[in-house]
Fold:
Amino acid sequence: MYSIIITYNKNLHISHITGGEMKKIRSLFSVSIGVIFLMILFGCDFIFEEKLSAPYVRIIGNVLCWDEVDSAESYDVYCNDELVLTTAETYYVIEEAGETLVFHVVAKNENQTSTISNQEVLQYQDQETMEIILENNMIYTIPSNVGFVKISGSAVDSSILIDERSSTIKIELDNVNLISQEGYNCISTKSGIYDYYNLKFTAVINVTGENSLIGSDYVTIPEKPSTNSGKTGLTGGEGGSGIVLPSFSVIGSGSLTLKGGVGGNGGSGADSSGLSTAVFGSGGTGGNGGYGIKSTFFVIGLQNESSCTLNGGEGGKGGRPGTNGSIITGPIYTTEWDKRYGKDGYSGGPYIGVSKVISGFMII
Structure:
C-alpha cells in the first residue's frame, strides 16, 4: 500500500489568477485527475496536508523569537547560513559572537519543510562604553555611539535617556534603585517613543543584585485658567514609567522591580465672578498612571528563581470646577456645578507590549 501526500496552500486567492494562468491550471487539473484515477486503481491512500508557512522572526534583545507555525513539529535555526540548532521551541537564545549576525528559521514536520523565514540582523558594533553612577536630580543621555553602559547606585528625580540608534545596546544594572524625574521615565528613548517599527533597535538588560526602576508620581498642579475665561482646567501630567524602549530582553541573576507612577490631578476650571457673563470652567481630566514597561516586544530570560515584578500607577483625580461667583450666570448654573468635575485619568498597567518569558519569573 502506498500513501500520496498532497500539500495545499490555504492562502491561494482565485481572484488573483490571470486568464493564461487559469488555462495552465485547467490543464494541470485534467492531468491530475487521470493520475489520481490510476493511483486509486493501485490502491494508494491520499493524505491532504496544509503547506507549512514560513516563520516570521524578530530579535528581541539577545533572543531570536518567532510565532508558532501550524502543523510544524520543529524549527531549524540558521546563523550566517549555518545550522546552529533544531528545536521544538519558538525562540533561540543568541550566544554567537560577531559584529554582524544574520538569522533565519525554517519550520519542519515529518513530511514538509517550509520556505525560509525573513532574515533578522543582530549588530554588535565596536562602540564606546559608558558608566553611570547615579546622583539625584540628573538627566543622563546615552549617545548613539555608546554600545555598552553600566549603571549603579541610587537616586531620586533622575532619568536616563537613550538616543536613537541602529545597533543593539547592552545595559548592565548593578543594584540600581532609581525614581525618575517628574515628567520623565526611568530608562527611556529620548523621544519617549517605544514603537519598534518606528525605532528599530533593541537592548539587552543584564541585572545583578536587587534593582528597582520606579516612575515618579506627577505632583505639579496645572496652572488655573484666568478668571472669567470660561476655560476648562488643564489635564494632569502622566505618571512616569519604569522602562520605555521599542524592544529589549532582561537577563542575569538579579531581580528587577518596575513600577509606574501616579498620574497628576486635573487642574481646576476657570472661576467666574462679579458681573461677568462667563460660566465657570469645568475641571480638567486627571493624568494617566505610568506603566512598569512600555515596549513593542520584550523577553524575560532571568536565571534560576530570579524575577521581574511589574506594577502600574493609578490615574490622577479629575479637577474641580471653577468657583461659581458670577452674579449673572451663577444662579442659572448653580445646579450644574457638581456635574462639572473632570474625569479621573486611566490607571497604568504592568506593561504595554508583547511579552515572552523563557526563564525566571514575571510577576504582575
Notes: Confidence is low (pLDDT under 50) at residues 11-17. DSSP finds two helices and 26 strands in the chain. The CA atoms of residues 135 and 155 lie 5 Å apart.
